[in-house]
Specification:
A 4-stranded antiparallel sheet has the order 3-2-1-4, with no helix packed on it. By secondary structure, it is mostly beta strands. 0% of the residues are buried. It is globular. It contains no helices and 4 strands.
Length: 76
């Protein structure tokens, strides 16, 4: 979801890890590729990141929202 915290690392820059956050999530899940595009915003004030740089992102998952009945799995 937008606002989720992200930790981004870079294979080309070992030891570099920057915080970020999810700013947009595609509403479409690409079934055949098992891919869901996610846009992440990170600060680059020091200019260490450049366009086309490969990155790996780990998204912190918030606990799921409670169901309408107030408990996971619904009211059954």
């Amino acid at each position: 979801r937008p606002g989720q915290p992200v930790r981004v690392t870079f294979p080309g820059a070992p030891g570099l890890s920057v915080p970020g956050s999810v700013v947009r999530v595609s509403p479409v899940f690409e079934e055949g590729a098992r891919v869901m595009p996610v846009w992440i915003e990170v600060e680059n004030a020091e200019g260490r990141l450049f366009e086309g740089m490969q990155a790996r992102a780990v998204i912190d998952v918030f606990p799921p929202a409670p169901s309408i009945a107030g408990r996971p799995g619904g009211d059954s």
